[in-house]
Amino acid sequence: MKIIILAAGQGTRLRPLTDKCPKCMVEVKGKSIIDRQIASMNSCGINDEDIYIVTGYCGAVLEEHFKGREIHFIYNEEFDKTNMVCSLMCASDVMKSDEDIIVSYGDIIYNADVFQKILLSKEQLSVIVDDGWYDYWSDRCENPLSDAESLIYDELDNLVEIGQKTNDLSRVQSQYIGLMRFQKDGITKVLNIAEEAKLRSSVGKKLWRTTRTYQKMYMTDLLQGLIDEGNKLKAVHINRGWYEIDNCDDLGVVEKQLAE
């Protein structure tokens, strides 16, 4: 089992908290996002030596923070020009190691129960989704649909659509949180779909359901590409137990709810 944490972004919406440190080092009630993540992983039996953090903005600060521990670091040299998928592909050698891969966004926190859910998945491609998202999104913004994205799954819990903007609540059956697992042939499928996206962008061809290019594509664009190419992505359901810290308002919501 290898863990890849994507933490290369600049976190501009969390400034001034991110003026001198990466987004994942913003503190939530006195403990950083990344420390909370890794504590949940460690409590589930994941060793530091199996954790790989893709860094970019203020990467040296993050490495210094974990100095003396066995955590690995991979630097995305184009962090200011690229997005999540390119950061993940910086760790492609890790993904080719013949071990299962868990991928986590660097700006979310989750408890051990949530992490255990993805550990227990036996599917080649699986994605954590939160069925209790609506009340949380209602606390984060006046209109939950202004920020939420579509997520539709079939009667077998296989994802049909993910990551599309919508004003139709029926198309948001749950919400993607940024925690997923790739196993066996699923890893090869992810690497292949990323390579296909790169190829399409190089010749000016549109990706699956986005106008973004390979360099700027979101993780949900990659997941939708996998779905549209006929692959099965299993929805692994939770009901809360996690938070996203995308801006200062989010931080306020998280700290208030944790206090309660």
Q: What would your notes on this structure say?
A:
By secondary structure, the protein is an alpha/beta fold. Helix content is 33%, strand content 23%. It contains 9 helices and 13 strands. The strands form 4 sheets. A 7-stranded mixed sheet has the order 5-4-1-6-11-8-12. A two-stranded antiparallel sheet has the order 2-3. The longest helix has 18 residues, at 185-202.
Uncertain segments are none
- State the separation between the terminal residues, measured CA to CA: 34 Å
Work out the radius of gyration.
17 Å
Which of globular, elongated, flat, extended, rod-shaped describes the shape? globular
Q: What string gives the helices and strands in order?
A: EEEHEHEHHEEHEHEEEHHEEH
Number of helices: 9
Largest sheet: 7 strands, mixed
What's the mean pLDDT score?
95
Q: Give the helix level as a range of percent.
A: 25-40%
Estimate what percentage of residues fall within beta strands. Answer: 15-25%
- Total E-strand runs: 13
Q: In what order do the strands lie side by side in the largest sheet?
A: 5-4-1-6-11-8-12
Broad structural category: alpha/beta
What are the main properties of this structure?
260 residues, alpha/beta, two-stranded antiparallel ribbon, globular
Q: What's this model, at a glance?
A:
The chain has nine helices and 13 strands. The protein has 260 residues and is of the alpha/beta class.
